[in-house]
Every structure is written in structure tokens, then in C-alpha cells.
Amino acid sequence: MLTSIQVAHIFSRPKRLALLLLWALLIAVIIVYSIDDVYVAHDRVGSARYLKERILKSLGLAFNDGVPFQWNGEVGDKVIVMAHTHAEDVSWVKDQLPDWQRAIYNVELTHPVGESLVVPENKGHEAMAYLTYIIDHYDSLPSILLFLHAHRDGYWKAWHTDAPLHDNVLAARALQLPFVEEQGYVNLRCKLHPGCVNGPKSGAEKTLTPEIWNGFFGNSSTPPRWLAMQVESYEPIPTDPRRFDYNIDHLVDRVPEIRVACCAQFAVSRSSVLQRSKGDYISFRQWLLNTNLPDRTSGRVFEYLWHIIFGELGVQYVLGLFLRSALE
Fold this sequence. Notes:
It is built from 14 helices and five strands. By secondary structure, it is α/β, with parallel strands linked by helices. Strands 2-1-3-5-4 form a five-stranded mixed β-sheet, sandwiched between helices. The model is unreliable at 36-41, 231-248 and 318-328 (pLDDT under 50).
């Protein structure tokens, strides 16, 4: 243990102290990088990566913080759809992503105020706003729809955002729109956990009962794609839903296996949305308005079903392995 004389001796030599601090900093950075390399596949909240990026940013050192942003003053054929409460500051969307159209819903308002839109009822977390936008703009949708949460960044609030510093601005700027057009549906979450891990019971299997599934899809005009594929005369879901004619029962006695990365932040193409009739989205929203499930649970139902609503198979984690190309 150092004596007070020895401590005073060390501090009397600033160069030595600076050297010690430099070594300590170097060791810390090496440890952070090492932890990230070892645990990146298992760390669902990105703790090591977030810590590393915070350290590098605070030191003014370069790290991969996305593509440089230059705005030419034009707003693209793309929209950000978002739900928020009074307490959530969403000014960052307008300030940092001016090249996107905005459809931002304050779920606590009963009448529109300024740019803030309203929903029929504050239920199901972000799901009510997502569905309301699709219903109200079904006949005039932009080419790309990006559904985001209201929090821009932050370790605790935005742990599920895979962009550097869990920053949704960087995620939106890095999104490759041609990839979204090609795929139709792109989950912004690239990590497979939670949502895609194997086990005796996934989150979806705990939440989705046959009653919920049948109540959700029972009144829709377009069966989920996984169900259509079980029909011998399977054909891809047509672009024009009025041409869809399957003589099969929508109802099931067992919910299929569902694997999809969390957490209800995704991009879809207009063509994917239009695979379903407007009536389907009205039906889904009506289910949400009618359900007695708590908001957390009803919102989670949609979190497990968005990809199926937009024409994907129930198990989506195989594609998820390649989704990083959407954010490069």
C-alpha cells in the first residue's frame, strides 16, 4: 500500500503520472475491444459495444458512427412513422432527419396540435399509430415506410437499436432503401436475441394463443403466407388483394412457430403494405381497440406478427443473419 510520501512523490512527477494514465487508458480500450469481440454474439443489449463507442467518442477518437450526412434540401419518397407521449422529445426527427417525411402521433392527444397527429385510442404502444398511418394513407403511401420508436438513443431506452450508440438517427441514415424495396420487409434489429433464440418456449409461443391468432387473422382477407404455403395450389400473395381467392379456413388450433428479432422497429416497402387490403388493417386495428389485453401484451402481439402481416414466413431469423446489408 502506498504511503502518503510515496503518493506525493508520484504526483510530483507529472510526466510519470501522465504516462500511468495513458497506460491505464490503453488497457481500458483494449479490454473494451476484447469484451466486444468475445461477447458480441451473446450480448443482446450491446453493452460492450456501447461502452466502447462512448469511450471513443468522449476521447474524440474516430469510430464507425455511420455515413456522413449531406442534405440537398429535398424530402424523399419515404416516411418515418412514430408514436410518442407528451414526455418524449421527438424534435430530433425533424432536426436530424429532414430528408424524411414525418407522421408523428402523440398518443395522449385527442385533437391534432401542430405536426402532432392523434390515434383513436392509446392502446398497444406503437401499434395503434403504425396501423392508423397505414389506414389513413393507404391510397397515397410513399415508397418506403420506416417505423421507429420515439427515443433517439440511450443505453437503457434504445438497447435494441443496433446502430452505433444505439442511435436511431444513424440507423435511419444508414438504411439502404433499395434493399428494403427488394426485401419488402426489413427488421432494423440484426441481433437474433431476443426473439429468434431456440428453446422450449419462445416469447411468441408464450404470448400468442390460438384464440388470439384466430381473433387477429380470422377476419382478414389474406391468410398469412405460411398458411397459404400449406395449400396444394399455393401461389404468391397477389399484388392486388381483390384477386386473392383461397377457399381455406383461416382458423387454426395451434399457432405456428414464430421466430423474429424484436422490437417493432422496421422498414417496409409500399408494395408489401399493399399485399393486404385496407380492410385487413382496419380489422387489425379493431382487434386492438376491442382487446382486453394489457397494452404491453397487445403491443407484443403485434411485435411478433408485423413480419407475417407484411407477407413474411413465421420464422424469419434465417434472413435475419443477412440483414446487416440493410444498414451498411
